[in-house]
Structure formats: C-alpha cells, structure tokens
Amino acid sequence: MSTPTEIPSPVAQALQSRDVQAVLDESIRAFGCQAGTVHWLDAQDGMLKLAAHRNIPPPITQIIATVPVGKGIAGLAALNREPVSLCNLQTDTSGQARPAAKTTGMEGSLAVPMLTAGELRGVLGVAKAAAYDWSDAEKSLLLAIAAQLGEARP
Description:
By secondary structure, the chain is an alpha+beta fold. It is built from five helices and six strands; from the N terminus they run ααββαβαβββα.
C-alpha cells in the first residue's frame, strides 16, 4: 500500500467482478484483518441491510442483519458519512459499538461509508482480532474501496 488511494490488485480485481463477498474477503486480507461486513443502504426503509460478512458469529449476523442509521459502528459511519474506528472494541466505552459487538471477539475495528457522487450507498467494515490504531492512510484506502464498491452495487 504505497499511497492511500492505491487499491491493492486483488481488491481491484474483486471490485471489477462486482462480487461483494470477494471484495470483502480481499479487503479483509489487504488490511490484515480477520472479520468484516458489507451493509447496503435500503432506499425504501433507510436501514442498512447486511449483504456480506466474514467471521461474524451467527447470533451476531442476526442482530446486524438490519442496522438503523446512527446505531452501532456501521450506523454511525453512515450517519456521519465518515470513518468510525475503534482501537479496541473489547474495552471501548465511547458507546459507538453496540454491546453485542463485543461477542465477535474482534478488537481493532474500522467502518467507512460507501459514498458515490456524494450519495450514501452503504457501509464497509473490517476488524482485527487485536487492538489496532487505524492510520489516516488506511482510512482513506478503505474509503476508496468503499466508494468503488458503492458504484458496483447491484
């Protein structure tokens, strides 16, 4: 990752394929993460709907299947239209994460809005199993990936 917007080749190839699960999986790998989610914004009800996930426990996938904008990490990224990062989800007391998020076992979490031509399309999130401080360059890169993913939305 030499520049913030240089999307790694495997992620770029997945984006070209328009395979949401492949984009998520390659993004997880590119950032050295162990888990992640993609939520699309449902234009009808204004809720975030889970479109893809990796290494999220089944009870949590049920909880995050539909996320209100403004609730939890993904909901806050959508509401504020900016990245939401947590160094350690397990010890976070900011109130940004929903209590059930701790049961994922993840610590370093980053969620970014998918903004395409200024329009919110959804949220892309990745997480590490260890505490981690996300750099501005990493946030910019995930935002760039999310923007392209939003353009590819079916």
